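Researcher: Structure prediction, please.
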Amino acid sequence: MKSYKLLCFTVLFSALVPTAYAHDDAKKAQTKSSMFIGVDTMAAKVVQRFHQALKSGDKVTARQLLADDVQIFEGGGVERSADEYASHHMLSDMKYLAAVNSKTLEHNVKVMGNTAVSMFRSQTTGMFKGKERNYQSMETLVLEKQQGEWKIIRIHWSN
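Model: Predicted structure follows.
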């Protein structure tokens, strides 16, 4: 009788374990897909172009994607126009981003008429000015459709 119970338990357990793992895999896939929502929208493509322009040092494209009156909040400071950012922080941001690696962990874009909000989370690693970097950062961008084109009107960066 004891052997029969052991056999039943073994059969039952071996039947349930793969089901549990399949459920975990499906849950992970669902979670991953919910972390990348709206990334095929035109607003999201502007965000992606902005990130690429900063990473590659393309000042012209980065500036063009910003509204003239953009507000950029970072580290307790604020820049109140695209020209102010282009003449101050942009170049140092480009040097930094060229030196480190950034992996996108999450990107969600919600379009509501002529306004869009982009929530972006990334993992940054690498060396900059002799210091090891390894941290997650958050970015919130607000975009507005102006004369038929998406422009970034607000940026908030935090680590």
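Model: Confidence is low (pLDDT under 50) at residues 4-17.
Researcher: Thanks, that helps.
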